[in-house]
Amino acid sequence: MNGKILVSGTPARAPALVFTAPISFWGGINPKTAMVADVRHPQHGLSISGKVLFLPGTIGSSSAAAILLELVSMDIAPAALVLHEPDAILLLGLIVAQEMGHSTPIAIQMDRSGYADLAGRMITIAADGTLSAE
Length: 134
Known about the structure:
Blueprint: E1 4-7, E2 12-18, H1 25-28, E3 52-55, H2 64-73, E4 80-83, H3 88-99, E5 106-109, E6 122-125, E7 131-133
Parallel strand pairs: 2-3, 3-4, 4-5
Antiparallel strand pairs: 1-5, 2-6, 6-7
Helix pairs in contact: 2-3
């Protein structure tokens, strides 16, 4: 499967974590632990650290970039981000992290219709945005 690169970054090989609902990184993700903190979110209590995170959508907050930047700077960010639609605010966190000299996860765009089939599988995302699952 080919994803469209939104922000280039480190290629990834990690387990898939498929979110079944959109999330706000501000208040939804604990920036100190990378755990889903929103008690109303279906994936509450799971860690996004080191996972290929499939996001069906995001709930806007201009603070999302800061949360993602903090996760990257603490080395607890997802291994990669797969978004249904680009989120300029969230992706800004990766761009700022790169400007600060941090190694960042790759972010790609892929239609969410195939997300469910990838849940729990080992995912590889190449530098060119190609995604494969084992």
